[in-house]
Amino acid sequence: MTGGYDDRDGHIWMDGKMVEWRDANVHILTHALHYASSVFEGERAYNGKIFKSREHSERLKRSAEMIDFEIPYTIDEIEAAKAEVLAASGLQDAYVRAVAWRGAGPDMGVASARNPVRLAIAAWEWGAYYGDAKMQGAKLDISKWKRPSPETIPSHAKAAGLYMICTMSKHAAEAKGCSDAMMYDYRGYVAEATGANMFFVKDGEVHTPLADCFLNGITRQTVIGMLKDKGITVHERHIMPEELEGFEQCWLTGTAAEVTPVGQIGDWHFEVGALTREIATDYEKLVRS
Ligand SMILES: Cc1ncc(COP(=O)(O)O)c(C=O)c1O
């Protein structure tokens, strides 16, 4: 049986070396643990190959720059490290987590420029992120927390600090029997779920919130490309909550979520329709092609 995430067999790449899974630890006075000076990536490998691997490594580097530190490895070095981790895991289909953070060092206040920047990469088996919602359509709560303005926080970074409100939103959603929560942004527009982007269908056209204050997901960009290749019109725009009433279908996209249909958001209902199914199937084919 698999134990907790800290109690498994295998190896984790840490600062240039493969270390025993259970020994991949940090000191309690790690800056990131206190001040959220951490960025990460969530990636999936299919048939032994990480989908859009380089895009993820590039985003990791960019996220770090956005929160004011530099990862001391090149994109090629990160790519090689991920390949090493995946090979060592023996997994063909895996979730790959790269995380970079300001470690323990001479500084323990808010400023931490002298502390070392560290990088670790782990891989594990991870099935459907929303379980059987993938077939029936997920049920989403509406979060009381709003995606913050880019003037408040670097909202385009995949940075740990941005997930504090996601964790709270998802806990509240799960307590109500929902799979996840939809979040509005600071202006009141529909934004995204706690770890996935959103798409809506109306009259054969697709509408997705403009990613101007949240993560412009790699899956989101992939799916927009797939839709356009099919000749389907995609509107990237600000979406008001009252428009949800008129949308027929809804799905989520994300590396972990892949393409997951949504059946309900609050009191709004959606059908798991033909286009949703088609995009989900096409995405599955694409990641394995
Ligand atoms: C908050 C948030 N939005 C969107 C996404 C989707 O991003 P991607 O498709 O790059 O995985 C994720 C997942 O990484 C996420 O955590």
Automatic annotation (TrEMBL):
What pathway is it annotated to? Answer: Amino-acid biosynthesis; L-isoleucine biosynthesis; L-isoleucine from 2-oxobutanoate: step 4/4; Amino-acid biosynthesis; L-valine biosynthesis; L-valine from pyruvate: step 4/4; Amino-acid biosynthesis; L-leucine biosynthesis; L-leucine from 3-methyl-2-oxobutanoate: step 4/4
Lineage: superkingdom = Bacteria
Instruction: Name residues in a coiled coil.
Output: none
GO-annotated molecular function: L-isoleucine-2-oxoglutarate transaminase activity; L-leucine-2-oxoglutarate transaminase activity; L-valine-2-oxoglutarate transaminase activity
Could you tell me what reaction this enzyme catalyses? L-valine + 2-oxoglutarate = 3-methyl-2-oxobutanoate + L-glutamate; L-leucine + 2-oxoglutarate = 4-methyl-2-oxopentanoate + L-glutamate; L-isoleucine + 2-oxoglutarate = (S)-3-methyl-2-oxopentanoate + L-glutamate
The cross-references to InterPro entries, in alphabetical order and at most eight, read: Aminotrans_IV (IPR001544), Aminotrans_IV_CS (IPR018300), Aminotransferase-like (IPR036038), B_amino_transI (IPR005785), BCAT-like_C (IPR043132), BCAT-like_N (IPR043131), Class-IV_PLP-Dep_Aminotrnsfr (IPR050571)
Which family, according to the similarity comment?
A: Belongs to the class-IV pyridoxal-phosphate-dependent aminotransferase family.
PANTHER family from the xrefs? AMINO-ACID AMINOTRANSFERASE (PTHR42743), AMINODEOXYCHORISMATE LYASE (PTHR42743:SF11)
- Specify the protein name: Branched-chain-amino-acid aminotransferase
Give the species.
Sulfitobacter delicatus
